[in-house]
Design a protein that fits this description.
Layout lengths: L3 E6 L8 H9 L11 E9 L2 E9 L8 H5 L5 E3 L6 E3 L14 H5 L6 E2 L7 E2 L5 H5 L5 H5 L5 E5 H8 L18 E4 L7
Parallel strand pairs: 1-9
Antiparallel strand pairs: 1-8, 2-3, 4-5, 6-7
Length: 190
Amino acid sequence: MSQVGIYFNQTRCTGCHTCRVACKDWYDLQVEGVNRIRVTAIEKGTYPHLFLAFMAIPCYQCATPACVAACPAGAISKRASDGIVVVDRDRCLGREKCEKTPCLKACRSRAPQFGPEHNAKMQKCDFCLDRLVLGEQPICVEACPMYALEIGTLTELQKKHGSNQEAPGFRHPKTMKPAVVITAKPDIYS
């Protein structure tokens, strides 16, 4: 298996949310509700020593995804061919029927999400699998005006960008092994 991963260059991200808006548009998601990719701001310091960085947060397609183990219906699985974590929405019990939505609570990056509709089925980022199959880039990668996102096999990304997985605003349990490589913005005031 060649694990597909994502590269995020935190030094390039301006927090414009184009990745998030493009994703919502592509999947016809309501303004309020599911965000398959989110962008958070990390603000630290006091004037004049301020630090601002952004973190793009899709699903990181973990090697050991907590959401897979937590799903009581077996609706979430990790593809053997590329390591992408997918949801079978037909098997998902739905927000109201699933006892305490364990998949949502198990994921540290809150990738599994439920829409606002009655008994919404879980959905999450799958690196735009429908586009990958056609040889296209995920919509967030294609839309980013700063070229801060890139998709490839984790091995290729590590060869090209290194193996760093640490950055301001990014926390994950080491046991989950997220498929991400990050160029972190230096925090000169820490």
